[in-house]
Amino acid sequence: MIIGLTGSIASGKSTVAKMLEEMNFPIVDADQVARVVVEPGKQALQEIVEQFGEDILLEDGQLNRQKLGSIIFHDPSKRTVLNDIMHPAIRKEMLAQRDCWVEQGAEVVVMDIPLLFESKLQHFVEKILVVSVKEDTQLTRLMERNQLSEEDAKARISSQLPLSVKEDGADAVIYNNDSVEKTKEQLRYILKEWGIQ
Ligand SMILES: CC(C)(COP(=O)(O)OP(=O)(O)OC[C@H]1O[C@@H](n2cnc3c(N)ncnc32)[C@H](O)[C@@H]1O)[C@@H](O)C(=O)NCCC(=O)NCCS
Ligand SMILES: Nc1ncnc2c1ncn2[C@@H]1O[C@H](COP(=O)(O)OP(=O)(O)OP(=O)(O)O)[C@@H](O)[C@H]1O
User: Fold this and answer.
1) What is the Å distance from ligand 1's center to 11 Cα?
2) Where does ATP bind (predicted)?
């Protein structure tokens, strides 16, 4: 079974992915793949420099993620430019990793894809698991984790579809408002319902 793990920014996807990893399920992580496709020497990085200028690089030639983030989370048209460069490369690598795990005999593969709904990738997976969180908790956790102002955190949250829309498209929802242990209990229950573990 291919499980698509999604949610909104700072809703708790990585927290749930870590639990699944500890249960020994293979994870294909879109955020991690997104970092690999912009390493120095990769074509996507060259295209980003062409669109955003040399200033988007750090002195050592790596992508200045903080700077690019501050541009694209405040400007939908720039975000589209970046997505058009990166998403085809990310999708290709994620599918290759998924197929590799399946060929090796994995019965369950988890694909952690923050933008599963925004990028209409529902067909990549068989079951969709959404990690949801209340708005105020999401804002506080995001501000704390990324050391962002309220304005910057809100800009990031509103660059994605509302969680209510994602919940509507889910096969199961984890409400990550309470302790991490409570979240784990919900995960175990859902896996059991799906006949896994
Ligand atoms: C803009 C970048 C450089 C900012 O890097 P930074 O290290 O600050 O954030 P990180 O990569 O850890 O992403 C954190 C979260 O931001 C959200 N996010 C990232 N990119 C986007 C986007 N294009 N649109 C909406 N939300 C996004 C996701 O929820 C993601 O989990 C980076 O997010 C990026 O390269 N984004 C484009 C690729 C992409 O769409 N990634 C999302 C998963 S496919
Ligand atoms: N149940 C919880 N209780 C307290 N803190 C939590 C809980 N779940 C997650 N957090 C914290 O909230 C922040 C966001 O969680 P996490 O990184 O798992 O979200 P995410 O959905 O993967 O985010 P992103 O889309 O940005 O990668 C982290 O700092 C994490 O430690």
Assistant:
1) 14
2) 10-15
The answer to whether 43 and 62 are in contact (CB under 8 A) is no
pLDDT digits (tens, 9 = 90+) for 22-49: 999 999 999 999 999 999 999 999 999 9
Q: Is the ipTM here above 0.90? A: yes
Q: Token pair of 154, please?
A: 């809100």
Cα 22 to Cα 16: distance, rounded to the nearest angstrom: 10
Ligand 1 atom, smallest distance to 14 CA: 31
Q: Which residues line ligand 2 (CB under 6 A)?
A: 7, 9-15, 31, 114, 141, 145, 176, 179-180, 183
CATH number of the domain bearing residue 49: 3.40.50.300
- Give the whole-angstrom CA distance, residue 129 versus residue 5: 5
Is residue 150 exposed (0-12), middle (13-18) or buried (19+ Cβ within 10 Å)? exposed
Q: Quote the domain boundaries for residue 87.
A: 2-193
48 touches ligand 1 (CB under 6 Å): no
Distance CA 127, CA 87 (A): 22
- The pTM score is 0.95
- C-alpha 50/C-alpha 10 separation (Å) is 30
CA 91 to chain centre: 12
